[in-house]
Design a protein that fits this description.
1187 residues, Immunoglobulin-like, 7-stranded beta/alpha barrel, seven-stranded antiparallel beta sheet, 32 helices, globular
């Protein structure tokens, strides 16, 4: 702590004569300053910091006393050589408001308003020598202002207001799930309210539902704990304690409806104060406030014309929307002035995204400075021969003077000053410092500032810039901060408040005193994300969204060209501008994921629907169509391959193994749709009087509409949304139309089918005709799978639609298959066969591993998180088997897990698009097998190293929301896929299996000669690299049994090579900082033929089979699936045979199970190979007998 000297001036006058002048600091002991004279002036030097309360008193010779009171702020003496530091906190939330209903679809703006947004200015006020910049997005200001309106509501608010006794079962379930969505530290805080909150969580985690009083307690506590605790306690200057809220925090339960109403009312009042607190700090001179284009659009993309998506390969046709960019900037200035009473000078372009055109727009709207990322200045200067940072080494600053210098960016005479944030220290606040002791983290930050600052030859004209989200790092569990980040922020400000070698500055003042002298005539296009713009464009659904926005915008322009700039046009623009916001495009695609993706998709489309409605036009069907859950079959088909005789006779015996669906009422009397597939074709058997079809061949359109493989949503490129004559979507985006052509029928009943590809605009483009249909008493047809670009183990949706024509006019569509789509999984002829029969055939199996169970504990010490959403809190990451095989184009990894997770609302928990909610799979591929020639760092989040002899060239990351390959430093998403064996009929996983498929175009054909490091952890949307962290103590969302540092790996299970154990492989040394060092496995050079299996439960000798030494060892298990013994197979079959149908049926009937539940259990056991087919059939027979 540096002692500085400060001056206090005391003046007193008295006609009689002054006897004494005294001074007390902070109500301490009076110190005598003088005794005589009728006039007294004294300057006193003291050592003090910050704000202090002074009391001065004077006494005259007559004994009269007078007092003066003042609060003084003591400031450091100016240090001209201090390092200048600008701290910018960016405050932003997506526009959660549904403009059509006025309802906020998510509650997060309100939640952050009464915690993080409230705390920031109140903490700052305690440290008067600290100056910061707050950046407020105008749409966030608008949302905060809405909270105190009587019309405000959001889903959680509405549930809170509904009487607890009147809640439906689903609403109670929702409360029991979502009202625990608070930061993990709240479950560790130890006052009465937090203890009761934790207790309620434990009740729910135990599997018991809360009763009505407990639900009411949960309601009150959820909203009460959202409010800043130090605010409630009155720990901030000028904020008295809230005795009512503090009393509620001290209760131990039994809250009342009045308590709930009080908390909700307080939230509104507190939110209403927030923006005023920032204005107060700004007017005091302690902070500066900058802003962002109104709805947070990506300016470079608004100002860019046509592009072709790097992944989607779609050509987005749009113009340069300069008017929109300027309007977003002008609206921002207006909102800023209305809220803060001044004109803004600085701007944080949304996502720090800039381009030459964006700089021009910013300059034209009179902003004087902007902040963007260090990669932008590096990409700008690197072509000129100046390196600023090392982008391949953590963005380490190699040229501090070049980074910390403000630049005048001059684009064709339009000038703006640009500062560039230090990415390294900014990201440490966001992602690393929360996992350290707060004091240690502040020490490291301060050391870093001194280290970089002392490398500056011109400290006076340089400024180090920290620019980071203002709220996300505080509450995100994965950021790791205790006490909602307040402890770190307080210690950081306390330190900066006293540091004389570092001066925190406001950029307005700094740039006015130190005008930049270096001018650049261009600036790189990019953002803080990888220095590019690809997060908001390039993937299929991102580019589709841009196309839809462009079409809606053009519709407004076309309407205005006819009708003028009417009120309807102005209303339409009010929905165009929020649709231009970055958040919709951020969450589209696979590079960023959230459990609320469907909500963001819906909000974006609502904005566009409102555009069309404002100008009196019908919104396009693609904006209102929704993906529907598949129909329930009338009869479930048997697993595996199915192939009927295509003869036009829909024989029910022949189709008995197929799936059967009941039709909706239709004009041709069709009652049943039979469906099955093998690896070559999809087969349909349609039973109806076909004479109607034959007699009206020219005037009937009977077609099968088919989706692209496994559509996760309605945003699929080059698809149509309506069948011929349709007025509503069939519940999926249509990729293919298969039309039956009765007019081509020959005497033997043979007819053609015509296959059309969707044009993406309602048109159908002829693709191929196939002679694979027979019309007889019924219709049977085979649709070649190759003709619809679908592969084995992929799912498609189907709909059968009939349309009549009168004259030249087609009528309305009859959805014969009903309003819900039919789902079909394309089978594989090799699926699971290689477990028992390893041969070198079509799918060319390589080998399999039977992994020991119950080893999902990392190095032997890890414990599962406690959250009930991770039930059963074991087995989720336990690899029980891994099979690796190839097709002609792919290398396939088939993972089997002991558990897959919970099912909610008939879907995997959290609804991941690839159907596995928990597992994070990494596969590191050493292609060249040369020591140290590749990378030895695991992907971000795994937190381990790889041995030099397995250094990788390609790495695969697969989780339920995202799959990608890292090829060196390049991330690619084409050529790698993943999916689980989720069964939409049984609504569970068939065999707890995840498939990861890698195109051989990515890794080459010599895959048997590669090395493979294969690890599994837990996916976490907010974790580093999307991995869930391991800490010393297990928590709701954290594994325990590790350390609180970053030395322990986050790997829970792995495939271990021969000669070691998982415990040894994942061992780490926290003291020395040595991380786990991983080795991998090698594959046999060719598949092992069936006749090389042995008669006992051992592997074969290396002398006989040269590749045997390369096979991975099984730790204590002694089984390698490629060499499965006959004994093992017979034991497996015997164990299946011992599970009798009578046992299953009798026990379940005694438990009161319904017949359909027992039938479903029998089917699930058959699919899981727990019973044989004969046992399954015997069970069905027993049920029929006991009916």
């Amino acid at each position: 702590i540096v002692s500085s000297y400060y001056n206090v001036s005391i003046e007193a006058t008295d006609n009689v004569g002054i006897k004494a002048v005294e001074l007390a600091i902070d109500n301490g002991t009076y110190i005598a300053l003088a005794k005589t004279g009728t006039y007294y002036n004294y300057t006193w030097s003291i050592t003090a910091e910050g704000v202090h309360h002074l009391t001065a008193r004077a006494e005259d010779i007559a004994g009269n006393r007078a007092y003066a009171y003042v609060n003084c702020t003591f400031k450091r003496e100016s240090n001209p050589n201090a390092i200048k530091l600008a701290i910018i906190w960016h405050m932003h939330q997506p526009m959660y408001k549904n403009m059509a209903t006025g309802i906020y679809e998510l509650p997060w703006t309100r939640v952050h308003a009464v915690q993080e947004y409230l705390d920031h200015p109140l903490i700052l006020k305690k440290y008067p020598n600290v100056h910061v910049i707050y950046n407020f997005v105008p749409s966030l200001m608008e949302q905060i202002e809405d909270i105190n309106k009587s019309s405000y509501t959001d889903p959680h608010w509405a549930l809170a207001l509904k009487d607890t006794a009147a809640l439906t079962i689903d609403e109670k379930k929702k409360i029991q799930k979502e009202f625990f969505w608070l930061s993990a530290w709240q479950f560790r805080d130890d006052d009465n309210a937090n203890r009761r909150y934790r207790q309620l969580s434990e009740i729910v985690d135990s599997g018991r539902d809360l009763n009505d009083q407990e639900l009411l307690d949960l309601k009150v506590l959820y909203f009460l704990l959202q409010i800043s605790k130090p605010y409630v306690k009155g720990e901030y200057e000028g904020i008295p304690p809230d005795s009512e809220l503090w009393a509620l925090r001290n209760k131990t339960g039994n809250y009342t409806k009045a308590d709930l109403e009080l908390v909700l009312a307080k939230q509104k009042l507190i939110a209403d104060r927030v923006l005023g607190l920032y204005r107060e700090r700004m007017e005091s001179g302690q902070c500066e406030i900058s802003t962002t284009p109104y709805y947070h659009p990506i300016l470079p993309l608004l100002l860019m014309d046509n592009w072709t998506g790097a992944i989607s390969n779609l050509k987005v046709v749009k113009g340069v929307w300069e008017e929109d960019a300027l309007m977003q900037l002008k609206m921002a200035r207006e909102k800023y002035k209305a809220v803060f009473g001044a004109e803004p000078q600085g701007i944080w372009p949304s996502e720090e995204a800039v381009s030459p055109a964006a700089v021009q727009a910013i300059a034209k709207t009179n902003f004087t400075w902007l902040v963007t990322d260090s990669r932008i200045i590096d990409n700008t200067l690197e072509p000129m021969g100046t390196d600023v940072i090392n982008q391949n080494a953590g963005d380490y600053v190699v040229n501090p003077p070049a980074l910390y210098k403000p630049y005048i960016v001059n684009i064709s005479g339009e000038k703006v000053t640009a500062v560039f944030r230090d990415r390294t220290v900014s990201d440490k606040i966001s992602f690393q410092y929360g996992h350290m002791n707060a004091s240690d983290a502040v020490d490291e930050l301060i050391r870093y500032i001194y280290d970089m600052g002392n490398r500056l030859p011109d400290k006076k004209n340089s400024v180090i810039t920290i620019a980071v989200d203002g709220e996300n790092w505080m509450f995100w569990d994965d950021a790791g901060y205790e006490n909602n980040g307040r402890t770190f922020l307080e210690k950081l400000y306390e330190r900066l408040n006293m540091e004389t070698g570092i001066e925190t500055v406001k950029l307005n003042e700094f740039l006015a005193k130190n005008p930049p002298s270096t001018e650049i005539r261009t600036i790189a296009t990019g953002s803080w994300i990888n220095g590019d713009l690809e997060t908001w464009r390039g993937e299929p659904d991102e580019d589709i969204a841009w196309e839809r926005l462009a079409k809606a915008r053009q519709a407004v322009i076309d309407y205005a060209s006819i009708h003028g700039n009417t009120s309807e046009v102005l209303k339409a623009w009010e929905s165009i501008y929020p649709a231009e916001g970055s958040d919709w495009f951020w969450w589209y695609g696979t590079d960023q994921t959230t459990r609320d993706e469907d909500m963001f998709d819906r909000l974006f489309k609502i904005h566009l629907v409102n555009v069309y409605k404002a100008i009196g036009l019908q919104p396009p069907i693609e904006l209102t169509a929704e993906l529907r859950a598949p129909a329930e079959p009338m009869k479930a088909g048997k697993p595996g391959l199915f192939k009927p005789d295509i003869d036009g006779i829909v024989n029910q015996t022949e189709w008995s193994d197929a799936w059967a669906y009941k039709t909706s009422e239709n004009s041709i009397g069709m009652e049943t749709i039979n469906l099955g597939a093998d690896t070559q074709n999809i087969y349909l058997g349609l039973s109806f009087n076909t004479q109607t079809l034959i007699d009206n061949a020219e005037n009937l359109d009977l077609s099968v509409y088919i989706s692209s493989p496994s559509p996760a949503d309605m945003n699929v490129p080059m698809t149509n949304y309506l069948p011929l004559g349709g007025n509503e979507a069939p519940g999926f985006p249509i990729k293919w139309k298969v039309k039956i052509l009765p007019e081509t029928m020959l005497e033997n009943g043979e007819a053609k089918i015509a296959i059309f590809r969707a044009g993406g605009d309602g048109r159908w483009i002829f693709s191929i005709a196939s002679q694979t249909c027979i019309i007889g008493p019924g219709v049977e047809l085979a649709v070649p799978i190759s003709s619809i670009e679908t592969n084995a183990r992929q799912k498609v949706y189907l709909a059968i639609v009939l349309v009549h024509r009168t004259g030249e006019t087609w009528g309305n569509a009859e959805y014969i298959s009903g309003s819900a789509p039919i789902e079909l999984l394309i089978p594989s002829d090799t699926a699971r066969e290689y477990i028992l029969n390893i041969t070198d055939r079509a799918s060319d199996n390589i080998f399999g591993i039977v992994e020991p169970a119950n080893d999902d504990y990392g190095p032997g010490t890890y414990e599962y998180p406690t959250s009930n959403e991770m039930a059963p809190n074991k087995g989720l990451f336990d690899i029980t088997a891994l099979y690796i095989y190839n097709s002609t184009s792919e290398l396939i990894f088939e993972f089997h897990f002991r558990e897959m997770g919970l099912v909610q609302d008939g879907k995997p928990i959290w609804n991941p698009p690839y159907n596995f909610p928990h597992q994070m799979i990494n596969i590191y591929i050493d292609i060249d097998r040369k020591n140290g020639s590749g990378k030895t760092d695991c992907l971000e989040g795994a937190n381990a190293k790889i041995r030099d002899d397995f250094a990788w060239e390609v790495a695969i990351s697969a989780r339920g929301w995202d799959v990608y390959a890292m090829i060196g430093d390049e991330k690619v998403r084409t050529g790698v896929t993943a999916d689980a064996d989720w069964n939409t009929t049984s609504k569970r996983w068939d065999n707890n299996t995840v498939y990861v498929r890698i195109s051989l175009s990515l890794i080459g054909q010599n895959f048997r000669k590669y090395g493979y490091v294969i690890v599994v952890g837990s996916q976490d949307e907010y974790g580093p690299g999307k991995w869930r962290a391991v800490n010393a103590q297990k928590e709701r969302w954290r594994f325990g049994g590790g350390t609180d540092g970053d030395v322990d790996s986050n790997i829970i299970d792995m495939i271990v090579p021969k000669g070691t154990t998982q415990e040894n492989m994942l061992a780490y040394d926290a003291g020395s900082g040595k991380k786990a060092l991983l080795a991998g496995i090698l594959l046999p050079e060719k598949a092992q033929p069936e006749n090389n299996q042995t008669e006992n439960n051992t592997t074969v000798e290396a002398a006989t089979y040269p590749w045997a030494d390369f096979l991975p060892a099984i730790f204590g298990c002694g089984v390698i699936a490629i060499c499965l013994s006959t004994e093992f197979v017979l034991k497996r079959r015997a164990s299946r045979a011992r599970l009798k149908a009578s046992t299953i049926v009798s026990s379940r009937l005694k438990q009161g199970a319904e017949r359909e539940d027992i039938e479903r259990e029998l089917l699930e056991r058959l699919l899981a190979e727990e019973i044989t087919e004969s046992t399954y059939n015997e069970g069905l027979k027993l049920l029929e007998e006991r009916k």
